[in-house]
Amino acid sequence: xxxxxxxxxxxxxxxxxxxxxxxxxxxxxxxxxxxxxxxxxxxxxxxxxxxxxxxxxxxxxxxxxxxxxxxxxxxxxxxxxxxxxxxxxxxxxxxxxxxxxxxxxxxxxxxxxxxxxxxxxxxxxxxxxxxxxxxxxxxxxxxxxxxxxxxxxxxxxxxxxxxxxxxxxxxxxxxxxxxxxxxxxxxxxxxxxxxxxxxxxxxxxxxxxxxxxxxxxxxxxxxxxxxxxxxxxxxxxxxxxxxxxxxxxxxxxxxxxxxxxxxxxxxxxxxxxxxxxxxxxxxxxxxxxxxxxxxxxxxxxxxxxxxxxxxxxxxxxxxxxxxxxxxxxxxxxxxxxxxxxxxxxxxxxxxxxxxxxxxxxxxxxxxxxxxxxxxxxxxxxxxxxxxxxxxxxxxxxxxxxxxxxxxxxxxxxxxxxxxxxxxxxxxxxxxxxxxxxxxxxxxxxxxxxxxxxxxxxxxxxxxxxxxxxxxxxxxxxxxxxxxxxxxxxxxxxxxxxxxxxxxxxxxxxxxxxxxxxxxxxxxxxxxxxxxxxxxxxxxxxxxxxxxxxxxxxxxxxxxxxxxxx
Length: 565
Hints:
20 helices; Nucleotidyltransferase, domain 5; alpha+beta; about 20% strand; DHBP synthase; five-stranded mixed β-sheet
């Protein structure tokens, strides 16, 4: 039985494919259309999933669609005319109509018309039910509390579930906008001059430069932590408009917002980021405490866009509320496609749980033959190498900046070692060099480390695996100079721990760096530049290599270099 999961009702549109309840393929549309956080209907993602399995649409038994399109349209009806000329809103509305089978104008209409051409028809799954399924059904837990937190979806902002076996039951829900932690964090970002949703990571990174106590009294006016895990925001300060968001009163309360020519690290902005992050952490911990009490479970699963806030995740992990915590690596709306598919597999078809997500490498991969063709067409001098991981590890140990393109692409917003830019973490100045000359992004933004799981404990204060780079931990005392380029200003790091079972090539590379330098750690950032999605194809990799300050590209079994004095 094949089930196609689709998210087309929000940003991070994506598709995935299950076969008998096992995930075969999963990818975001942005990796193909090259529009970060793309809202386009995921036709290319769908085509990839089907081609990877070697099937056609006629072989699909059911299509699971994330979100209830008609409900979303009705919720936004009041804002139609006000926003009808905004390109993003027209695109969103078109996707809503397309997934209901009413839209006929897409270039692939012969394959999507009517009920999208799928014999099994469409099955809709509510937004937060999708997040919950993506968090629990593929987790390693037989039973768990499940917390879904984002800005909004199908009228809800947050929900608490209990999962047991293949069953998920929603126990508590909190409506948008008055309880929306994600919307609150977007308002903080708007004050700082950042884009909603897309730049949440910038707010988190900037928060370490400020003191949350400076603006704490102002933030106390904004929300109340109440009974039953409730977080209630004062909408006089965070007014919501249908199909759009307005934080004007919130911004007035904090003062003059940041202008494009002002530094984000200016004290008043850093303090605002710190206060916003501090309140978000308190709100998430408040919800986690109630989830523990409500479910009685010792395990917790997290999904929803706020689940990507690795600082807050670290607070929950270290709180001791739960013995184990599992966070969906595609916690944002891209993961809705996963949740829709697994929800239909377990709910509609009564399928058993027979899959655990042990890695995130479900995107496109390319053969050496294809890679060689691209290099030859590009007229690039290249060298064939027998052992790419050892070769690349030697380059990193020599302080070269290496583009690393191997295997199937990782899903989710974090580069996890198959589409990565890698650097020796020992030299502190490499942070500024990579930010300025490679990533072309703000200097305050930190980089994350990847370490072998067996060696991570020597450098980082963490007592559990962190395979998806979603938990902040402290750099151990006395080890700060060893990993200076990935140590944030507050002494923390967003660790990815790597095992040979999850990614043998990447683990071998990091181990080789350890053999050469004594430090089995690399600085790992996504293979892209600011404003672009992570590279997908060999063509993308070559283009990015030559438009940045990378020294070397190790792509498949080939090495391309610019040379360096």
